[in-house]
Specification:
It is a single chain. The chain has 245 residues and is of the alpha+beta class. It is built from six helices and twelve strands. α3 links the parallel β3 and β4. The longest helix has 15 residues.
Length: 245
């Protein structure tokens, strides 16, 4: 049975570990206490780190064993500062973020949205590549339900589900991700409609919607705040290079 924590608030402080030791176990690998997503799904990884970012040599070695030599990985955790990395690892980018809690967000269905599937993957990748909403890899779309907006047949906006954190139903949360709009169609409220609709699907399962954003993405933080999401904790999404061995 999955050994993810049952309490969503506990799981949300370490979402990658919770997802990969729980409902998304088939999308990654674990070794000891270290976890990482399949590199075609997500760059995210995690290992036990204390409040100052220190981890044991054994846990860092386990994470290195899950990574190709010299490959890049994003270590995710609730914290104010970057991890203290051991020799052989390289910190490429120290990336502060925030987690936003949608416990009070009911979501809302919207007209004009389409459910995206395997036949849409090439367009989804193209839109994500142009708008850069966050990591988008060959298998990212397999993680959950994605909705989009088409104009004259062309995909111009989308949003969907990424990490499934904690247990199912009231014990869990699902992250809304890949919220992006073609620059030509911004300012029309498409992102809000999509986030509301994805949130409604999450709430219908009895789960809590959550979001992550870069700490300096004040526009997105304001938008999500206006929708009822609240800032819950400081997060880190730090890009590291694994040892070359």
């Amino acid at each position: 049975m999955p050994d993810a924590p049952d309490r969503p608030d506990t799981a949300l402080t370490d979402p990658v570990t919770s997802a990969l030791r729980g409902r998304l176990a088939g999308f990654g690998a674990t070794r000891g206490a270290a976890v990482r997503f399949d590199p075609e799904v997500s760059p995210f990884a995690a290992l036990p780190l204390d409040a100052d970012g220190h981890g044991s040599a054994g846990d860092w070695a386990d994470l290195a064993a899950l990574c190709a030599p010299g490959s890049e990985v994003v270590v995710v955790r609730a914290a104010a500062g970057p991890p203290r990395i051991p020799a052989g690892w390289e910190l490429l980018r120290a990336f502060p973020g925030v987690q936003m809690d949608g416990a009070a967000v009911p979501g809302a269905a919207a007209d004009g949205l389409v459910e995206l599937g395997p036949s849409d993957r090439a367009e989804m990748a193209e839109l994500a590549g142009r708008t850069r909403p966050g990591p988008w890899l060959a298998r990212t779309a397999e993680l959950g339900r994605y909705l989009g907006v088409r104009h004259d047949g062309r995909l111009v906006a989308m949003a969907g589900e990424r990490m499934r954190i904690g247990g199912a139903g009231g014990a869990g949360a699902t992250e809304i991700s890949a919220v992006c709009t073609d620059p030509e169609f911004r300012g029309r409220g498409l992102a809000r409609r999509l986030v509301d609709a994805v949130a409604a699907g999450i709430v219908a399962r009895g789960e809590r919607p959550v979001l992550h954003a870069a700490a300096d993405n004040l526009g997105a933080i304001r938008l999500y705040g206006a929708m009822g999401f609240t800032l819950s904790r400081t997060m880190r999404f730090d890009l590291l290079r694994a040892p070359h061995r």
